[in-house]
Write a structure and sequence with these properties.
Shape: globular
Strand order of the largest sheet: 1-2
CATH architecture: Orthogonal Bundle
Distance between the termini: 43 Å
CATH topology: Arc Repressor Mutant, subunit A
Structural class: mainly alpha
Length: 109
């Protein structure tokens, strides 16, 4: 039998998700896009926002590194926190309604 999370556990889960800068950027990108994104699209957006001062293309392998991090670490944690719907099979990520509750904690462009 699954037990329901207490409000405190729900807050802890959301704050754990927001503790990482890359996850905050990912959520902001998803909110601003107003559509589901592929992992590659999301990774590209994160790379641009992480280093807005970069005047050249990101180093070789940067996109792959960010994609792998999203796929194996960031997106599963955000999905577990009910902040995104993520389907690895369909390669789609979209925010849930719960993100609206925490959008003031997200970076703005």
């Amino acid at each position: 039998m699954d037990r329901e999370e207490t409000p405190r556990e729900q807050f802890d889960e959301v704050f754990r998700a927001l503790a990482d800068r890359q996850r905050r950027i990912a959520l902001a990108c998803l909110l601003e896009s107003e559509r589901a994104l592929t992992i590659t699209e999301l990774a590209n957006e994160i790379i641009v926002r992480e280093d807005e001062t970069r005047e050249t293309a990101p180093p070789a392998g940067e996109l792959g590194r960010v994609r792998i991090e999203l796929y194996h670490k960031q997106l599963p944690l955000l999905a577990e926190s009910d902040l995104v719907r993520y389907s690895a099979d369909r390669d789609r990520v979209e925010p849930t309604d719960r993100v609206d509750e925490i959008d003031s904690f997200l970076p703005v462009e």
